[in-house]
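Q: For a teaching session next week I want to show students how multiple molecules come together into a single three-dimensional assembly. I've collected the sequence lines for a complex. Could you give me the predicted structure tokens for the whole thing so I can convert them for display?
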Amino acid sequence: MYTKNAAVYVAGVGVVSAIGNNTAGCLLALENGTAGIGPITSLDTIHKNTLPVAEVKLSNAQLAAATGLSSQLSRTALLGMMAAKEAWTDAGIAQQKGLRTGFVSANSVGGMDTTEYFFSSFLKNRRSGRLRNVVNHECGAVTELVADGLGIKNYVTTISTACSSSANSIFYGARLIKHNILDVVVAGGADALTKFTLNGFNTLQILDKEFCQPFDENRHGLNLGEGAGYLVLVSEKAAATIRKKMYCRLSGYSNANDAHHQTASSPDGAGSYAAMKGALAGSGLQPEDISYINLHGTGTFNNDISEGTAIKRLFEPHYPKMSSTKAFTGHTLGASGGIEAVFSALAIQHQIIYPNLRLQTPMQALPFVPEKTFQQGVAVDHVLSNSFGFGGNCSSLIFSKL
Amino acid sequence: MTENLYITASCSIAGNVVVKDGKKLFENAETNAQLFLVSIYQHFALNYPRFYKMDNLAKLGWLATEILLDASFSKQDYQPEEIGLVFSNRSGSLDTDIKYYETVKTIASPALFVYTLPNIVMGEICIRHHFKGENDFFIFDRFDAGFLQEYMAHLFATGAVRACIGGWIEILDNDYHASVFLIEQKKKENALLFTEENIHHIYQITHG
Amino acid sequence: MDKLMSDLKRQIVEQLNLQHVKPEEIGDDQPLFVEGLGLDSIDALELIVLLQQQYNIKLNNAEDGPKVFQSVRTMAAYIQSQRA
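A: Of course. Below is the structure for the complete assembly, covering every listed component.
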């Protein structure tokens, strides 16, 4: 039975990224303007001294110690567990309360990092390479490891739609609640840095050799990042059993296809426009109700003009404040929707706006400029978070104050 | 709610055959998956040069959908944003991931990298048909008719879509299976009711 | 130059998976992008890979791409200039 207007609350948040190992760490960095981008330290790659990335500042051993998982597992699983566990603990929900609980997770790279270790040995000698390293290669396997770690068995699934993946996980979780299939859903995503993606993005020539500058006229591309972000979504009924204040509501969401190109966005931002418009329609809000947009803002020439054009078409003349936090965390691919959803929920809880770092020259084609400073004590009632992926997969989420 | 949802077309490509609406349309004993897929393209004279650039997963999904949507599909009855896609498989984009990774040894191939995501097949289908509605791609251990039926029915119930293509598009090396179906709210001749059982039957058709 | 152009046509068809095109059907001066052969941005990146793999030439400035890859003849001229 589907209840269209059933409320979906955010009861817990968890995040790990290049700027912080947990929510508090990330918030501090966002306030201080401290980006997590720097030279590659963890991957053994030919690009080691040329391409800046945003690495999580914890080794696999440290992640294992913090999460209780084995350090031999894929870094994607370790990062996922780190953030999902924080969110789960934050929500303070005991499984014994008889609430139907699910885990919807996203990633684009699965257990690729350990597979790469296997592959290099295997290439030299078909009999070498530890098979254990490829056992958890598939995207779904990484999800199961985290679900098992949290003790969630009822409902577990994986979504893999590139950079919109974890945003899609979140609104899929909301649908499960509105359809009264589940009461609680831990939803979001994780992705670790791998040579696979580094080489791939480099060959597409959309990486910045300097620190990225989203929405700057002279931007040169993105910096890859890694991390994980999860929300604990709950129904009205479940919220009543929790003795803490909810962060906010997930009030709107939408997904649309740009139908233009496998990796580039259309010049007029058709897919982005449709996703944002759909999310507004779902939430019953008007464009001028939005207080802040957390942009997809990767820093590539193409995305920023496409997204900017869609925003101009939809919001003209009332432009909300906006910024891309990828200037802090890099582009975390499958995790970006989840990480940025956490930042959006925090923006409402703390009534803050994040800055768009390293913005020097505003884009000439756009009649608005992202925020350059961190702001607090501002009215943040409704936040729109954009996540646009390869394959034209565009998603937008709207979070609203209670 | 599912009383007014119908499977108005279906197409399966598996085990060397192409089956549309329960009828075998094409067969070829070719054991190499890529060559088999190209033979389908050539047999149906599909005239879409972009096909050759696609990886095997996109070729498979694109072909199944192309054959699915024949002249009886009235695209003009819908806005582009009203047509959605819900696909699933087991291996993600692993078939291409492996091929791409081979190229990393020398020079990484951008054309292959583009396809190292399972949802790119949906992008190709949308580019072809100008569909702009919701897309989802799920990873499952095996085909789940019940999940797809429920999920797609909900999309209709919430007004997210007015027509939707769903199914399973899986390929790894030379093992392939695509079963896709078109769901609409109109009862056409020979249309089946949109139930888990009917979906499962479509999937099974090429399996025994 | 003629041999180079004919080699290039063959390599382009192979590298870009243009199975519906015969190398000899590509005109020496035919535009490769937009109209003509209708290649796109990903094909442009693959041509950069082709230069590197087959001719050991690295196109350092991606912005030179449109000029270099305008036609088979401009590609051949560029390759020759880099070899000199």
